[in-house]
Amino acid sequence: MGEAVYPVPSEWAQNALVDAAGYDEMYRQSVENPEAFWAEHGQRLDWIKPFTKVKNTSFDEADFGIRWFEDGTLNLSANCLDRHLATRGDAIAILWEPDGLGEPHREITYRQLHEDVCRFANLLKAKGVRKGERVTIYLPMVPEAAVAMLACARIGAIHSIVFAGFSPDALAGRITDCDSRIVLTSDEGLRGGRKVPLKANVDEALKQCPGVDTVIMLRRTGADVGFVEGRDVDWASAAAQQSADCAPEEIGAEDPLFILYTSGSTGKPKGVLHTTGGYAVWASMTHQYVFDYRPGQIYWCAADIGWVTGHSYVVYGPLMNGATTVMFEGVPNFPDASRFWQVVDKFKVEIFYGAPTALRALMREGDDWVKKTSRASLRLLGSVGEPINPEAWEWYHKVVGDSRCPIVDTWWQTETGGAMITPLPGATPLKPGSASRPFFGVKPALLDNDGALLEGATDGCLVITDSWPGQMRSVWGDHERFFQTYFSTFKGMYFTGDGCRRDEDGYYWITGRIDDVINVSGHRMGTAEIESALVAHAKVAEAAVVGMPHDIKGQGIYAFVTCNVEVEPDEALRRELVAWVRHEIGPIATPDVIQFAPGLPKTRSGKIMRRILRKIGENDVSNLGDTSTLADPSVVDNLLANRPLLA
Ligand code: PRX
Questions:
Q1: ipTM confidence
Q2: For the packed helices 34-41 and 277-290, what is the interaxial angle rounded to 10 degrees?
Q3: Of 320, 479, 563, 583, which is most buried, counting CB atoms within 10 Å of its CB?
Q4: The AMP-binding enzyme C-terminal domain covers which part of the protein (predicted)?
């Protein structure tokens, strides 16, 4: 193919948990005899009642179901905390770096974290939270967010974290969908020196959520925010009154652990449901093998806990493995573009795991910001969330990693619980831009649009043909939607929604979503969600949203908007609509381009031909394909003539 290949450095091949031969052998075992493989690797957890059944899964409609280790019981918080107390109680579990430079960092040992979690678990119980109940968490990147997650896991409550950048409306929708009556938040968040009014957002959201009777509020900035007597609880003082003993609840392997809302091609965001045993095996095992993690190493995943990466690789995976996990409240370019690498130097970070969008933004600022830091502690780099373009990969490798550190480009999804296609640093020669080979137990395949299996080097729709322990189990409240979304497109297989190429060496290259989902700065968004936000505006009659290439964000948001007839669209309205979408969903949904259009290209049956809009968004208009089935082909001429000038 002519692309660059980076061989496994010899010290990695010699010292890593698995080398190339080891990978081949373990992979073979994992797919030839999954029962035996997972019976063995399931032992990595402390079980209360050991499982006797391993895998009980079917992707077929007739007997559809996904169950792993189903008769075992365990507690995930005990696996993250209690099991380490005897050997690593005084080791640091969480190294927290605040947003600004003026505040001290925090070091929280396993023993301290255990105590904090027990107190908070007791507080939840005192507030009436029971096993199986949903707890909504709307917190910034502070250690208390991890405390809250682990406290839920300790008592068997199901957490639903809502990213602290989401709007009150988006928060309200998620609270209502999972019917939670308790919300955890803070007075404000701090990001890049700016304050985020989290408590005010909660107060606003709760106007739509009469079922919420308890809000536990952490004081982060000490701002003077509203306090509703009888409903609001001060986190620190209430937790301090609780006992530091809280026996971990016995939880079934298939009992739910968390819900995390994510966008699909249609409808409202869906509550991806993960259960306990299989997820825990997957998160801890992938964390250990993908990062070649050894206890004592300082590990930093720069994701927010509002996304699945934060769940699996800031909190659960690392803590199960007894890691020291860095938690960073801020952003890569505050106070300046050296911040990431200053934090690396400050804590002597050995493993750094970040998103391509941040790397591209930093790359643009020039190499000096990186080079003035040492980064000598770094051994391994990781990438996640979107395809990493080879230029950014090379920069990451050469400038950030001083050509010394392998890069693990991990492909996975909220639905998969953890990494699925990824290099292992001691085993996999790297090709910039390729997530490379499947993790143990993952059986990827490529299909054509008609569902025919494609062999060899080819392009196709990426499916996974058999279950793996970390797989999501359902869509909260809508099991039928779970089946329809993922298992009905290609019968008997899990459809990822991604397009993919496989090369001669069996390496997988994710090419991006092939459904109506876009990936903006590694944040997944349904075009339908942005469209419905736009049409909720009084002046908008119709809207269609597509992705567009964007140098930093990977994909940007391109919105075609048809206004009501009496409206004369102008720059003021454009700005109003941008602000409106930010308000309805959150800043991450800010449209990059709004093109006003008197009409959208529709078939005679009234269906919008999104293919044409996508091409316009991609600025690839030389061949729009067959437009003869359009009800009014002149609509396209108008769209082409009035494209906004893009920088
Ligand atoms: O399109 C793929 C892209 O992100 C999607 C999943 O998004 P989300 O559920 O938010 O999870 C992100 C964190 C795991 C995938 O369908 N994606 C994720 N990682 C990669 C990727 N695309 C290419 N390469 C990756 N490493």
A1: 0.99
A2: 80
A3: 320
A4: 529-607
